[in-house]
Amino acid sequence: MHDIETEKSPAPKKTRGKKIGKEQIEKARRKLEIYKAAKSTINATIKYNEQWFRRRYQEYFKNTDNSFMANEARKNKGEEVNPASAWMFNSILNYHADAMDNFPRANVLAREENDELEAAKISLILPALMDRLDFEKVYDANQFTKGCQGWCVYWVGWDKEADQGKGEIYVRKGKLLNLYWDQEVDDIQESSDVFYLHQRDRDEVVREHPHLEREIFTDNEDGYERHDENPTNSKPNKVTVVDWYYKTKTKDGRRVVHYCQFCGTACLYATENDKELADRGLYDHGEYPFEIDVLYPLEGQVAGFGKVAISAPTQMYIDLISKATEQNAPWSSRRRYFKKKSVIMNDQDFLDVRNSIVEVEGDLENLQPIQTNRIDGNVLNLQNSMIEELRTNTGSTEVATGATPGGVTAASAIASLQEAQGKQGRASNRASFRCFRHIVTKIIELMRQFYTEEHFFRVVAPDGEMAYISMDNSGLTTGEQMNPVTGEMETYERHPVFDLEITTEKSSTYTRMQQNELMLSFYNSGMFDPRNATQSLAVIQLMDFDGKEELVRMIGQNQRVQEQLQMMGNALVEYASMIDELNEDRGVPSDYTAQTQQVVDQMLAGGPHGSQMQGLPITDSRETAGTRKAREGAASAASPT
Predict the structure, then answer these.
(1) What is the pTM of this model?
(2) What's the number of domains the chain is made of?
(3) CA triplet 289, 290, 291: central angle to 5 degrees?
(4) Which residues of 333-426 form beta strands (DSSP E)?
(5) CA angle at residue 128 from 124 to 132, to 5 degrees?
């Protein structure tokens, strides 16, 4: 589980009367040391959990190296081997698979009617932007961390050097070991200061800040933490760079977030020293650029705990029983003997099973087999019980992994078990969705602040066609209205606010097929017929499925079109009747009224054959309804939507 390094610090700007100097940095470093001391227990737990994730159990077994290669070497030497089964690791894999199968996506909704166009535009852009930011990779790595550690960090900010200097938003995975905040708060946004440590080559830092060369040392005291088994350079030329975020209030009462990057006592950059940002702060949204996703929360703490914390003791005892079983196996499977020295025989002949006769001189009573006790069956039953306990506690039971419990054959019973098992997955996925909502909110605010130039995206339009659109912050910061006096359009400042609907971007092929079959069943039932719009809307309002709001909108739109067509048809029939009356006065018989009425009726019915599709197969005839419901339950058991 590797993390991503931070970006380079912005180039310093020459300003008068710098507010951040050595004195302020010394105070910040003292506060950092306080935060580090308070978080030392959490960092020790992070390293401990990582050892269990890597299946290293040094504290519980005699040998210090529990790797596969070390065990193989000990086995060849006849030494003790430390078994390390993967039951706990498998539970984290199942949690990760559940999370990735419910990968989130955001739909932006306008709060005001005037903002609907901008909301629709952002909704189209977000998937393309997330692909550009490689968010799925970050989400994937963080879900492993969340399952193991119980919490993970997303780092959302602006990289001014990206996209050929135009700048672009970034979403990165934060390092848990090197993020520090006030441990007496339960929300990182409430901390007065937040520190994030990373390492860079000293030569690179000096190149960017040559005037600070004498103040940048490779042995500075701001310790950068890493996992003990991660490889490092033999001759490091690294320096620890600290990103210091802190909140202040302006004269008008606004809360702003300032940023300072320092190395040792050298200030590399500070927003308060930048005259353009001294009053504005780093980000207009006024929050720290970190979002934390917690699996199992701890009262009064920002961090949580994960699968390792609840399953490590059980995993330890499972492996202890496995170790005892492996030690007993060679003793109980091979018969050994006590032999007195008075017994004379050829030991090689005795051990060679091909010899039918073995010559012995002396009393055979002095040759006795060694009795070895086998592992009791109750011990093995206890191990199986512990395995089931671990799987139950971590939500990775047979049902969750796709297996059928013994004795359960009815499809409806399997579906019920799957629905019950999916509760844990839905709860954790809802927490991830809440965090994702905050991430998207920050992304929109960064668009509002930094998209001063056009950014171009290739998107999929609602009609399925590929489209190319551009995005800048003009629609997020300004608007136009007509001056009632002059009658001219004037520009004014505005701050549109959006609501976010978080749904699941399903990865399951069966789930997509299930959704398609549902729509076909609606069509086959005549629910898309505008003449049945009132009844169809009543039925749909009582149902719950993905895309419900869009379907209601489409049916309502079709109903309005049908009403307009009805009005036009009535007008045509009335005109045809008038023509028939004129022809009758002239003595020319005609029947335009009946012909027009027939055409109008066919048009309103959706064609000469109506709107229903007869005989459309919507399910596989080989799959029963009960089995199909069971499969639907398995596909959506962990979905929070």
Answers:
(1) 0.75
(2) 1
(3) 130
(4) 337-339, 344-345, 360-361, 367-369
(5) 155
Residue type present at position 225:
E
CA dist 183 → 36, 46, 180 (Å)? 10, 16, 8
pLDDT of residue 285: 93
Q: Are 367 and 338 a contacting pair, CB within 8 Å?
A: yes
Instruction: Please name the residue that has the structure tokens 């490889």.
Output: 231
Place of tokens 């995005």: 471
Structure tokens at 107: 């739909």
How many CA atoms lie within 13 Å of 35's alpha carbon, on the beta-carbon side? 24
Give residue 16's pLDDT.
45
The type of residue at 290 is: F
H-state helical runs in 133-251: 135-149, 202-208
**By the 8 A CB rule, do 16 and 179 touch?**
no
- Angle, helices 548-586 vs 533-541, to 10°: value is 170
With 0-12 CB in 10 A as exposed, 13-18 as middle and 19+ as buried, what is 159? middle
The DSSP secondary-structure symbol of 59 reads: T
Report the alpha-carbon distance of residue 181 to residue 248 in Å, rounded. 16
DSSP assignment letter at 366: G
Residues 227 and 180: beta-carbon distance below 8 Å: no
Helix (H) / strand (E) containing 260: strand 255-263
Q: At what angle do helices 625-636 and 411-450 cross, to 10 degrees?
A: 40
Alpha helices by DSSP H, 525-547: 533-541
Question: How many CB atoms are located within 10 Å of the residue 181 CB?
Answer: 25
Helix (H) or strand (E) holding 291: strand 290-294
Nearby residues of 342 by Cβ (< 8 Å), 6 or more positions away: 362, 363, 366
CB 216 within 8 A of CB 205: yes
403 falls within a domain: yes
Query: Is residue 570, in this structure, part of any structural domain at all?
Result: no
Spatial contact of 527 and 539, defined as CB atoms under 8 Å apart: yes
Among residues 570, 561, 553, 552, the alpha carbon closest in space to that of 530 is found at: 561
Dmax (CA) of the chain: 143
d(CA 46, CA 376): 37
CA distance 637 to 641: 10
Is position 262 within any domain? Answer: yes
Contact between 51 and 65 (Cβ < 8 Å): no
**Is 15 strand, coil or helix?**
coil
| Averages of pLDDT over each 10 residues, the chain, 641 residues | 44 56 92 94 92 73 51 54 81 90 91 89 92 94 94 95 90 95 94 94 87 72 74 74 92 89 91 91 94 94 92 86 79 74 77 76 73 80 87 72 56 56 78 95 95 90 79 83 66 84 69 73 82 83 76 83 83 83 81 81 61 38 50 57 61
SS3 28: helix
Instruction: Indicate whether 111 belongs to any domain.
Output: yes
Distance of alpha carbon 59 from alpha carbon 65, whole angstroms: 10
Residue 493: strand pairing partners: 478
Range of the domain at 481: 1-67+79-333+380-507
Phi, psi of 290 (to 5 degrees): -120, 135
CA distance 466 to 249: 46
Between CA 622 and CA 86 the distance in angstroms is 38
